[in-house]
Design a protein that fits this description.
single chain; 1909 residues; alpha/beta; eight-stranded mixed sheet; 53 helices; 26% helix
């Protein structure tokens, strides 16, 4: 209903608000009280979750629901719904009477609607996808104009029929709306319901409530308030808005009168464009189509709070102590206030374009009066102020301008933040007002106020604040334009009162009033020049000592504001100024300071401070294999795509080249991995004896010499088109500089080299080069202009999913997220730390030496710390005062580590100094200190320069050779991995790590000197990636119990003893129990670090424990060794002998109590180290109590050297404080702040207005995020990769593999091993693609072959002689091995060993256990649909545009008397194949298929049409005969069933299809053969008639067709050499030949038309000399035959048969007196295809769909029984039953081969243990002599009229022999018995009648069995 306060807001005095906020600031306990505005803007994120739910809704109606918070009350009160009556229905969508009200359920029901009522749809918040049907009195509904609706409500329930609801509240309860807010009809009655043409009730038009287009949004109680500016109804707003919109006040209204505001309603509330989906989850096609006006996902600030100067209305106050309290600011503008935008006649004009985006001139160009920069500014202030130009004009600077830095960064940010509003103009006529300049500046002040003194402002933070504020203040308009809703009324441009220029300084000063002078506001009257002059004056006078930021505002009433912000804080100014240096400028600046001697003053300072200062076997991991398989899958996807960009079938082998950065160490370690992987031998690229020079050919260092090696690579790729070259770009984020836009001198060839080489035209266009980019930081390759398709990205898999270990890996990855996790409370020792005392000293010296770069200062401080720490450890305890606890801990553990191990194993400390000159200085100083302290044999100091190799002392080289058992005299370590166990400080230089791997003895990673001022995500993660580690997941480390130690005790503070802190892999038990959110551990600075140091204990290698040789690189637990052995046994990839022999530990079971360490106090004293005091307790005591611990209380001792322990836990990382804060701080979603940084130096954000990343984003979603929101800079190599058709910019053969950084590993656990494994399996797949499994079986029944010394032909005869061939006897015996389970055919009285055929196989074994061999495909092979090559593109039906050829459907009918009806077939004929057919001229009706003449001869033409019947093999059938035919013209027809026509046409668009009639959908291969033959004969007659008119004799028409199986893959020919001395001596060889050669040879056979059937052998590797000595045989032919349709006119295939139909047909042809010839010198190879064919027939129950195994014994049943009927053809059930259970019908025939079963006119397989004898009843047929044969049974199958009683009486049967008569029905069965007079010799019983288990409608077959009398 609504209330009477609609449109009005409760008000209060603004002075009260101001007073309360100031009072709260004064009373606050915080050092820097937060201003109320800051709380409103910057803390709203937590309170926004409820609002965001609506922003993400996909359903339009739901979005409207979420958006329609009414403006009728200032504070929406939570609504308590009346409890429903007891026992009533409370289900959503049903009324309380339990009746369904959902439109989808009752749309077709008749609903009685009383007169005057209408059906409307109500929306329930719990059912967003449904409308509830209601009947409402139309008097209470509005008219079309939204007016004339009576107040109140009257409605009925259409479900239960209850009437008379007079209150909408009551009605909403009845229909179970379950509202949490006051029910209002305007809010929930949404649509009229109407009947459509079918009479169904559907959703109609929207109910137009009054003011629905102008209903505003009000925040919920849990949120901060939104300001609703009230507009007068009569203001008549129209036109477009401007950048600074001030609505005109109603001149007719009194100043104090309330003005009603129209509210906005029906505005869809997506917070993004319609094409965007929350969290970046959308299709890559959408992503690449994005422009820079792309989606914004979620608002993060509620409302926009504005003030309009001195208040004019009273306001209700609110308590600043409760930020969640609800208040509404309703500020009335002063009507007399000057307006920057002229309002003409109530309409708003827009500002010129320049006013929207700021001055048209360059932001750095000054204007107006100049400002003089005072002299000695740097000397006085100790820092160079950084001036950020803001809005408006900026004055000229003159004088000492070297002491200030001016930046346009903020100006750019302001300008970008005003650009997004124009993105919405395309959706409507009016413009959305951008965020005003005043509001931008005010928000900037709020942001600066809340920064802590050690924080530095980030531009990303400010951009997000602007975006949230702007979006929230214009949420309604944004959503309106996003959905493009038609507008009835002009839109209100904004419902927020903007800040005016006059109010701005006042509000800014108010915001800064409580920040303890951290932010200072200077207001100017005329120009910024006076403000800047005043600021410089204050700086010189020292009045801004506490001030970090000065905001200068020039706010004039008559023009736009001018502003700038000056960074005066010494720390902030230094960081921001240094962040503006590019990496090269940074190097140059530091080098300049070193060369010019500017650092001498710093060195002198330290001299006064510190007098002494002056001087595993290789194996593939499960997740590596998973990644390799994913890579292979993507390669296959590229090959399978329709774009034909990669033809895998054309490649025979693999070659590769690995590109690495120009780091000598990385180059050597890649060579090492490649050498020991064995991949070169596996791919066949190299022979057994590898040399280093040969391996170097496959790894290219991207330096000046790279172009030579790359040129060789390109030449190889062009010369070997059948080799697939994989170009692997490792560490791919390094050097993405564009070759065209290089900022470096052109003499530096290595710059832009990646672009010049990998993006060259030859690589892009080569069809045999695949480029694989490999990196841990892929962000720079994921921009809007990337070459890499999102589909071609492969991300490292997660090891765990929902707590399940996916790969059962015994190594656990410890990366950035795990390091961050260790800083949370509940973990014993944080692995990420910062050094507060170091930072304090750096900051102090920064003030003292303001002209020096901070990198120089930090380096010198750290050198001093390390030097002093070395001295302190060596006994000079007073030097502890000149170092920090952290550095002392590192140095002490480093020096003591080698002393504690008998073998001298120690720890590595990595000291990261990016600047190479500074690294050289550090090396020299530390080296000198070490020499002076006589520690040169204790540990080594190594300078790691990327451009040079490793240099270490001779003493340490000898140690490494002993440890690694190396005998080579000249051996030197070339990789850091080879330094494992060496105690050393590695000074790691170079601006970026270049992929160098570090050994597992790394214990400390000191990153305190990394460049913390210029941070991007890649740089930051790359530096932290140095410490990434794989730790054994089976080492159960426990938490250290740290005693409370007083920080005032200097001895305890400095008592850091050893490095062996145990790192907790998981949270503690207490932590897991606690529901409270974990807080960050504070043990990361100097004070608390001493506690962690205190907790660490010393681990010594006990001399009494002899070292054991471990199997791996390190000592392993028993369980680990066992699991590794199991892996090694199963894995055949191991080729490397272990080099390293480590000292082993005494292993313990992981179930034993906690392992503790014994302290050797003598060793402590001897080494003069700082010892642990006796009062400390063991942190690893097994007792839960730490009272009175001593080192005698350890219950279990273990000896372990420090290196061994260090290798089991991740290193400890020290960071700069600034970096530490960024890494450990998270946003509201828990995402580390570092993730939201700019991803890479050479990319930039596409827009300041972009959504925040989410912690829940997967790698794929992050990629899509960067692809949408980042663009490359002009110096990026992808900058010019732009095209209007976005998909064209992706290179089809380019992939990206991203995985976590992993450098601390001896074994290739990471990406290197994965891509080498990928090369291995890709090579194997290519070999596999060129190979097929073909049946390789010896011919069967050779033992009963007729042995004869007579040979009818000579071995070298090319063709059979007709007359000689007629004399050859027919061999009835089946020799094809696929019929091993078939019944033997007897041709005479034979004695066969009963054991010969007693072993039968199961049905499925026919396919799964037949012997095969793998054969390499020749160039004459037949292929399936997966083969693509350039030669057969046109053959396959793909034109250059990859569109399918057109085909036409033609009917072809002919009559066949045996079927008693006309047969109608359909041909699908592609346009390209129509020349093979004859069409009638007027109607284009198909008349015949063209046939050649017998006399035709052509080298490029095959005369015989080829027919291939097929089912279920549209993908795998071998129908591509292009290569097999060697390109010859031929006619190939696929014979398919009607239901498979579409799928075959899709896969084979350029093949002719013969579609069988639908009645044959369930038929077997016999039907296909029958129709092929009958069609061919009918076509022969048609062609004879057609060509007879042309004067050609009928007998001259070619009568042969080829019937081929769909699995024939290759054909072979035997070449016989009879050049021996004797005629009987000959040799023979078999080679692969084309099908064209074989067919043309057979077609050229003399008198070929006299042969009825011609075939060839089935290939077998076991073919013997005897089989080919006779060149031709008269026997059965199978699989691939040439059929003479003319001679066989009267011999038909049995159309009902499923199996053995070729044997049956062969016997029919022979008995008809026709010749069957097999060419023994030709053979066909048949491929094993696991799908389709006979296996496509599944026998299942007709009653149930559940797949139940049905045995063949159930295939028949007694007639009229209640047996379960089967859904299978009757003929199939018959054949299968007889194959497995025929012995039930013929018991005497079992293994009785001397007395076979007589089978008349047919051959049926009765199983291998029963022999049959075939006879034909046709007159003049050829039959065997049956004299002397006594049969054990008689089989009569569908006898025709040729079988008569006299014919059967010729044969003799055993007493008790059995008869089986099979007919189509029971009536025919009885007639047959009578007609053949069977009852004279056979006895029948009623119970001996059977039928196949078919239902009556499926026409079962009937059996009758009887016994011979």
């Amino acid at each position: 209903m609504g209330n009477s306060y609609a449109g009005q807001l409760k008000t209060t005095r603004f002075e009260e608000v101001l007073h309360n906020s100031i009072e709260a600031s004064l009373r606050s306990n915080n050092l820097v009280p937060r201003p109320v505005f800051s709380q409103l803007y910057l803390e709203a994120e937590q309170q926004l979750s409820s609002l965001e739910a609506g922003s993400r809704a996909d359903n339009e109606e739901e979005e409207e629901e979420e958006e329609e918070e009414s403006s009728e009350s200032s504070s929406p009160v939570s609504y308590q719904m009346k409890p429903p009556p007891e026992g009533c229905c409370t289900t959503d969508g049903f009324c309380q009477a339990g009746k369904d009200l959902r439109l989808v359920s009752i749309s077709n029901e008749h609903i009685e609607v009383p007169s005057g009522f209408l059906l409307v749809g109500a929306k329930s918040p719990n059912l967003p996808d449904h409308l509830l049907v209601c009947a409402v009195d139309k008097r209470f509904l509005p008219d079309d104009n939204g007016r004339n609706a009576l107040l109140g409500f009257s409605g009925n329930c259409v479900g239960c029929g209850k009437k008379g609801f007079c209150y909408f509240t009551e009605f909403s309860n009845h229909i179970n709306l379950k509202l949490t807010t006051q029910p209002k009809k305007q809010k929930h009655l949404k649509y009229y319901l109407v009947r459509n043409a079918q009479g169904a009730l559907t959703k109609g038009s929207v109910i137009c409530w009054k003011g629905a287009e102008f209903r505003g949004r009000q925040s919920s109680p849990s949120t901060c308030s939104s300001t609703l500016f009230q507009l007068p109804e009569s203001s008549g707003l129209s036109g477009s808005t401007s950048s600074e919109l001030l609505p005109a006040a109603n001149p007719g209204a009194p100043a104090g009168a309330p003005q009603t505001a129209a509210a906005i309603d029906h505005i869809p509330s997506t917070a993004a464009f319609s094409s965007a989906v929350y969290n970046g989850k959308e299709s890559p096609k959408q992503q690449v189509a994005k422009n820079n006006l792309s989606a914004l996902t979620k608002p993060s600030v509620l409302g926009t709070l504005t003030n309009s100067g001195p208040p004019k209305k009273r306001h209700k106050g609110w308590s600043p102590e409760s930020p969640s309290s609800t208040e509404t600011w309703n500020l009335q503008l002063n009507p007399q206030a000057p307006n920057r935008i002229k309002n003409d006649g109530g309409s708003l004009s827009s500002l010129p374009h320049s006013a929207l985006v700021g001055p048209a001139s360059s932001p750095m160009v000054g204007s107006g009066e100049p400002v003089s920069v005072p002299d000695n500014l740097l000397k006085i202030c100790k820092a160079k102020p950084v001036i950020f130009k803001g809005h408006g004009n900026f004055p000229y600077l003159c004088g000492n301008i070297n002491d200030v830095i001016v930046s346009p960064l903020l100006y750019t940010c302001y300008r970008n933040s005003q650009s997004l509003s124009r993105a919405y103009e395309q959706y409507g006529t009016s413009t959305i007002q951008p965020i005003s300049e005043e509001m931008q500046l005010l928000l900037t002040v709020y942001y600066l106020v809340q920064l802590a003194s050690d924080q530095v402002p980030l531009i990303e933070d400010l951009e997000q604040i602007f975006m949230r504020s702007w979006r929230e203040s214009h949420l309604s308009e944004i959503r309106q334009y996003q959905q493009a809703v038609p507008q009835t009324f002009p839109q209100v441009p904004s419902q927020v009162a903007p800040v005016t220029s006059a109010q701005l300084p006042w509000l800014a000063g108010l915001a800064a009033s409580s920040c303890n002078d951290s932010v200072h506001i200077i207001e100017c009257s005329y120009s910024l020049a006076e403000g800047l002059s005043e600021m410089f004056k204050l700086l010189i006078e020292g009045k801004l000592i506490k001030t970090n930021y000065v905001v200068i505002i020039c706010a004039s009433r008559n023009r736009a504001i001018d502003s700038c912000i000056v960074i005066t804080g010494k720390y902030q100014a230094r960081v921001l100024s240094e962040s503006m240096l590019t990496p090269s400028d940074y190097q140059k600046e530091v080098n300049y300071q070193l060369v010019t001697g500017k650092v001498e003053s710093l060195g002198s300072f330290f001299n006064t401070l510190c007098p002494g200062y002056e001087i595993e076997r290789h194996q593939i991991r499960p997740f590596q294999l998973a990644v390799a398989q994913k890579l292979l899958s993507h390669i296959c996807s590229i090959a399978d795509s329709s774009t034909q960009n990669l033809d895998l079938g054309s490649f025979e082998k693999i070659d590769f080249l690995i590109c690495v950065p120009p780091s000598e160490v990385t180059y050597q370690q890649t060579l090492f991995h490649l050498w020991h992987s064995g991949i070169l031998l596996e791919l066949g690229l190299e022979k057994e004896h590898l040399t280093k020079q040969r391996v170097e050919q496959y790894v290219m260092k991207l330096d000046a010499e790279a172009q030579i090696k790359f040129k060789v690579f390109l030449q190889n790729s062009m010369q070997n088109p059948h080799t697939l070259f994989v170009l692997i770009h490792d560490h791919a984020h390094w050097d993405l500089m564009s070759a065209m836009h290089s900022l470096y001198p052109q003499t530096e060839l290595s710059t832009g080299l990646v672009d010049r080489l990998l993006n060259c035209r030859e690589v892009k266009e080569a069809p045999n080069i695949v480029t694989l980019h490999v990196t841990s930081f892929p962000y720079a390759l994921q921009t809007q202009h990337t070459h890499i398709s999102p589909y071609n990205e492969i991300h490292w898999p997660s090891s765990y999913s929902n707590g399940v270990d996916l790969y059962h890996e015994n190594k656990k990855y410890f990366g950035l997220s795990e390091f961050i996790e260790s800083t949370l409370s509940g973990h014993s020792i944080p692995l990420l730390r910062y050094d507060s005392s170091f930072e304090a000293m750096v900051m102090a010296l920064g003030k003292r030496f303001p002209r020096l770069h901070s990198a120089v200062i930090r380096t010198f401080v750290l050198i001093q710390h390390y030097s002093a720490a070395m001295m302190a450890v060596c006994g000079l305890s007073q030097m502890k005062n000149y170092t920090s606890v952290e550095t002392l801990e590192i140095t002490q553990n480093l020096i003591n580590s080698s002393r504690q191990c008998p073998s001298g194993h120690g720890l590595m400390v990595v000291l990261r100094i990016p600047c190479t000159p500074l690294a050289a200085v550090a090396y020299e100083r530390l080296y000198n200190v070490r020499e002076r302290l006589a520690l040169e044999d204790n540990f080594e100091i190594i300078l790691g320069n990327p451009n040079s190799g490793i240099t270490i002392g001779k003493h340490f080289v000898e140690q490494l050779k002993v440890w690694q058992k190396i005998e080579d005299v000249d051996w030197r370590p070339q990789t850091y991995l080879e330094l494992e166990g060496l105690p050393c400080i590695l000074i790691f230089s170079g601006m970026d790590p270049q992929g160098e791997s570090l050994p597992r003895s790394l214990r400390y990673c000191d990153l305190r000197l990394i460049n913390s001022s210029s941070l991007v995500r890649t740089t930051l993660e790359q530096e932290l990636g140095l410490a990434a580690y794989f730790v054994s997941s089976e080492i159960h480390t426990e938490k250290a119990v740290v005693n409370d130690v007083l920080e005032s005790d200097p001895e305890k503070l400095s008592s850091t003893d050893n490095e062996d802190e145990e790192i907790a892999m998981e949270g503690s038990t207490a932590e897991k129990r606690s529901p409270m959110k974990r807080e960050r551990s504070r043990s990361h600075d100097s004070a608390s670090s001493s506690l962690s140091s205190k907790a660490s204990i010393t681990a010594f290698c006990s001399e009494s424990s002899p070292p054991l040789t471990a199997a791996g690189d390190t000592a392993k637990s028993v369980h680990q060794v066992l699991s590794n052995n199991a892996e090694e046994t199963a894995n055949n990839h191991e080729r490397q002998k272990q080099k390293v022999d480590k000292e082993a530990q005494t292993t313990t079971s992981k179930h034993l109590p906690l392992v503790t360490e014994q302290l050797d106090m003598k060793q402590n004293i001897k080494s003069a180290q700082i010892s642990i005091t006796s009062s400390s307790s063991s942190p690893f005591s097994s007792s839960s109590s730490s009272s009175a611990p001593t080192h005698n209380s350890f219950i279990l001792q273990t000896s372990q050297c420090s290196m061994t322990k260090a290798s089991k836990q991740p290193p400890i990382v020290f960071l700069p404080k600034l970096v530490y804060d960024i890494i450990t701080s998270t946003d509201s979603s828990g995402l580390p702040k570092s993730s939201s940084l700019l991803p890479y130096h050479s990319v930039m954000w596409a827009s300041s207005f972009r959504p925040l990343m989410s912690k829940m984003m997967t790698c794929t979603e992050q990629s899509l995020y960067y692809r949408q929101w980042t663009v490359p800079k002009p110096n990026h190599m992808d900058y010019n990769n732009r095209n209007e058709g976005r998909m064209d910019t992706f290179h089809p053969r380019r992939l990206l593999l991203s995985g976590p950084p992993q450098v601390c590993s001896k074994n290739k656990i990471g990406k290197t091993g994965a891509y080498l494994q990928f090369l291995s399996i890709l090579s194997r797949m290519l070999i596999r693609l060129t190979e097929v499994d073909v049946y390789d079986e010896e011919e069967i029944n050779n033992n009963i072959r007729e042995e004869s010394d007579q040979y009818y032909h000579q071995p070298e005869d090319m063709w059979p002689d007709l007359e000689t061939f007629k004399k050859m006897p027919f061999d009835y015996t089946i020799h094809d091995p696929k019929y091993e389970d078939a019944s033997l055919i007897c041709s005479k009285l034979q004695t066969i060993n009963s054991e010969d055929r007693s072993t039968s196989r199961r049905q499925e074994d026919m396919y799964t256990r037949r012997q095969t061999t793998r054969m390499r495909l020749s160039k004459y092979a037949a292929y399936n649909t997966y083969h693509h090559c350039e030669q057969c593109h046109q053959y396959m039906g793909f034109n250059p545009r990859y569109q399918l050829y057109e085909s036409t459907l033609h009917a072809f009918a002919f009559s066949y008397s045996m079927l008693g009806e006309e047969i109608q077939l359909h041909f699908i004929i592609p346009k390209s194949k129509e020349h093979h057919f004859v069409f009638s001229q007027p109607g284009r009706q198909l008349e015949s298929m063209r046939l050649p003449l017998v006399t035709d001869k052509s080298e490029d033409y095959i005369k015989s049409p080829t027919f291939t019947p097929t089912t279920g093999r549209h993908e795998h059938g071998l129908f591509n005969l292009y290569h097999a035919m060697d390109g010859a013209s031929h006619l190939h027809v696929l014979v398919v069933k009607e239901y498979e026509m579409a799928i075959y046409k899709k896969y084979w668009p350029n093949h002719i299809m013969l579609v069988l009639p639908s009645i044959f959908n369930s038929a077997g291969v016999g039907a296909a053969h029958f129709l092929i033959k009958e069609l061919s004969y009918h076509n022969l007659e048609l062609e004879r008639n057609r060509q007879e008119e042309l004067g050609i004799k009928p007998q001259d028409i070619w009568p042969f067709i080829v019937i081929s199986d769909d699995s024939c893959v290759m054909w072979n020919a035997v070449e016989v050499d009879c050049s021996g001395d004797r005629k009987s001596d000959y040799t023979w060889t078999e080679r692969n030949v084309s099908l064209k050669q074989i067919l043309q040879h057979i077609e050229a056979t003399p008198n070929v038309t006299h042969y009825a059937l011609i075939g060839m052998r089935k290939w077998s590797s076991k073919t013997n000399r005897a089989e080919i000595k006779e060149a031709f045989s008269c026997c059965h032919v199978h699989d691939f035959i040439m059929l003479n349709v003319d001679l066989t006119q009267n011999v038909q295939y049995n159309q009902n048969r499923f199996t053995c139909d070729d044997v049956d047909f062969n016997l029919r042809v022979h008995s008809a007196g026709l010749l069957i010839c097999r060419f023994n010198h030709f053979s066909v190879m048949k491929k094993q295809i696991a799908v389709g064919g006979q296996r496509s027939f599944h026998i299942k129950s007709k009653v149930s769909d559940t797949p139940v195994s049905i045995s063949p014994a159930q295939y028949i049943c007694a007639p009229d029984s209640k047996h379960t009927f089967l859904a299978a053809p009757a003929q199939l059930l018959l054949e299968k039953y007889l194959q497995y259970h025929s012995h039930r019908f013929f018991p005497l025939s079992l293994k009785n081969y001397s007395h076979p079963v007589l089978s008349v006119d047919c051959y049926l397989n009765l199983g291998p243990q029963i022999a049959v004898c075939y006879v034909s009843s046709r007159p003049h047929s050829l039959n065997i002599s049956s004299s002397g044969l006594t049969f054990s049974g008689l089989l009569l199958y569908l006898c025709d009229s040729f079988v008569v009683a006299s014919f059967l009486k010729k044969f003799h049967f055993l007493k008790g022999a059995t008869l089986c008569v099979i007919c189509q029905d029971r009536n025919s069965l009885r007639q047959t018995v009578v007609r053949l007079e069977l009852e004279d010799e056979w006895q029948f019983r009623l119970r001996d009648e059977f039928q196949t288990a078919n239902a009556k409608e499926d026409r079962p077959l009937f059996f009758l069995t009887g016994r011979h009398i």
